[in-house]
Each structure stands twice: as structure tokens, then as C-alpha cells.
Amino acid sequence: MNELLKKLQGGDRRSIGNANQVVNDVLDDPTLFGVLFDGMLSDDPLIRMRAADAAEKITVRHPEYLQPYKDRLWRAAKIDQQEVQWHVAQMLPRPELDAEGRRAAVETLL
Prior knowledge:
By secondary structure, this protein is mainly alpha-helical. The chain is built from 7 helices and no strands.
């Protein structure tokens, strides 16, 4: 497992753990955003929720980081974990979407 995602392990769902440290790591090295995005699709529910939290915080400042992952964002939106869904709902409008993508975003949010 990647060192970045290891920082998101452990504890329980009431804590964001080291998500804010991961935010800073990715802001310092944007090439790590792909690793973080993969964490949202992890088998580990703690990594998923904390990766989604960190990605949401990062993309407030840098929505362009989501652009290469906009198609995979739909996959994250379908994860049956409320913490991930909350963060993905906030990220859905950030990448540039065509008309079909906007319709899909609205359907996903509803």
C-alpha cells in the first residue's frame, strides 16, 4: 500500500485521522492526487472516507485536479458508504461536464 494511504488507516469512523496531513502532502505534490483518488475506491472503509474527505478539501482549491478522474467519480458516488457519498456529492459539480454529465450528476445527487 502506498505511504500516503497508510496515513489514512486506523482508528474509527468518528475521526478524520491524518486526512488534513494528507491534504497538505497532496497540495505539496499534486502528482499524489491520483493515489488519493484511488483511496476513495479502497476496500478499507476508513481509507475510503478519509480519502474522500481529503479529496473534497483539495478540490475546493483545485477543482482541476478532478478533471482526469471525472468518469471514475461516478464509481465513487455509488459506494454504499454515507461518508464517501457526502464528500462525492460536494465534488460532483467541480469537474467540467457536458450536458450528459450534468444530467448524470443531478441524477446521482437525487
